[in-house]
Structures are given as structure tokens and as C-alpha cells.
Amino acid sequence: MVESPSVRYERFEDAHTVVRAADDKEVTVRGGLAVGRDVLRTAALAAHPPSDDELRAMLPPERSSTPDRSPMWLAREVARFLFG
After folding, report:
1. In sequence order, what are the beta bridge partners of 26?
2. Strands (E), the chain
3. What burial class does residue 15 get, using C-beta atoms within 10 Å of its C-beta: 0-12 exposed, 13-18 middle, 19+ buried?
4. CB neighbour burial string for 55-76, b if at least 16 within 10 angstroms, e if fewer
5. Number of helices followed by number of strands (H, E) in the chain
6. Three-state DSSP class for 58?
7. What are the tens digits of pLDDT across the range 36-84?
8. Contact 18/7 with Cβ under 8 angstroms?
9. Could you give the C-alpha distances from 2 to 25, 31, 39, 68, 69, in angstroms and in order?
10. pLDDT digits (tens, 9 = 90+) for 1-28
């Protein structure tokens, strides 16, 4: 069922879905039948690409690079073992 030019609702046997066209992509929000249709619609309309601040909040903090724990520490240890 088309709710608006950019939003459509689909109902299945055990779930329902709201699909929103966003630029050249589709945002799909699916929930069980216990989830209200208005909740799915609100979530689909609120979905957006994350901002830099949102990504920073979601991702683990960047590891600090110290001389003894840089990404190359294992290579240095092997080189020391092989070549002294």
C-alpha cells in the first residue's frame, strides 16, 4: 500500500515493513506485528546517514600508537629475532 509518493507499507504473514525512498536508496524498517505501524513509519522517516559525531559515538575509540604497541611491533620483534 502506498502511503505517499516516497513511502509504502507492506504487510506479511509474521511482520510488516515501511519502505521509504531516500535519494537513490531505499530505507526499509521491518518489525513484528506487535510493533505499531506508526512506530515503523516514524523510524523510516527519521532514518538518515550518520553524522561524523554519531559515528564517533558508535565506534570504539582510536587506539593510541605508542612505540612499543604500534601496528608494526610484531614485525619489529621478528626482525630483531632474525637479524639481531
Report:
1. 21
2. 2-4, 7-11, 15-22, 25-32
3. middle
4. eeeeeeeeeeeeeeeeeeeeee
5. 3, 4
6. helix
7. 999 999 999 998 877 888 888 887 776 666 555 666 777 777 778 777 6
8. yes
9. 17, 18, 17, 59, 56
10. 777 788 999 999 999 999 999 888 889 9
Amino acid at 52: D
**CA-CA distances (angstroms) from residue 77 to 29, 65, 67, 73?**
49, 16, 12, 6
- Secondary structure class of 30 (helix, strand, coil): strand
Which residue type sits at 79?
A
Can you tell me the distance from the alpha carbon of 31 to that of 74, in angstroms, rounded to the nearest whole number? Answer: 46
Per-residue CA distances from 30 to 2, 17, 21, 27, 66 (Å): 16, 4, 15, 10, 45
